[in-house]
Amino acid sequence: MRVLVVEDEPRMASLIERALREDGAAVDVAATGEDALWMAASAPYEAIVLDVMLPGLDGFAVCARLRADEIWTPILMLTARDAVRDRVTGLDAGADDYLLKPFAVDELSARLRALVRRGARARPAVLQVGRLGLDPAAGRAWRGEEELALAPKEFAMLEAFMRRPGELLTRDALLGLVWDHAYENRSNVVDVYVGYLRDKIGRDAITTVRGRGYRLDAP
Fold first, then answer.
1. Residues 9, 11, 15, 20: is their CA dihedral positive or negative?
2. How many other CB atoms sit within 10 Å of the CB of residue 4?
3. What predicted TM-score, i.e. pTM, was given to this entire model?
């Protein structure tokens, strides 16, 4: 596999590079966030090891920029910070895994192999379908410039639709995605909430497929 290591501390960068090369990987090293951005866009890396504390753009900003540019290479973030808030920030920015310093190089290699097996599928931190936008981490949704005030189940239903744009979702599928198994009132709750959602995002946004279910079209 080919790996980009983004680490500004020379000794740490050398340690990671040597360990990954011994494990059979091809390794490039970037010392700044700015270098990481152009390098990640210019070569087919299978994984990125990204330190949080970088000069200039930090790891959180680099991760968010890569995902905004639709670069879906799996990202493993490294940091000496052990605060839960920092880990949450990195994962919400689009990172796939998080490893605290100090770490065992064998674990680093194993985590990278696991990430590479999953592949570089699209997994945006912020969802966008036409004029509709949704940020699951921030709990925000909008249509164009208008912020949408959604109840929790409305938000969950919109997220389910936006993760599968253009795909037919049956009533049973929506029940499974938005409500848990303990929910008993299954008669017409999906239809009711689709109606609520249409009132807020536009009647034309969700198409009824008669007898089968619903589909989100780009409004």
1. positive
2. 21
3. 0.72
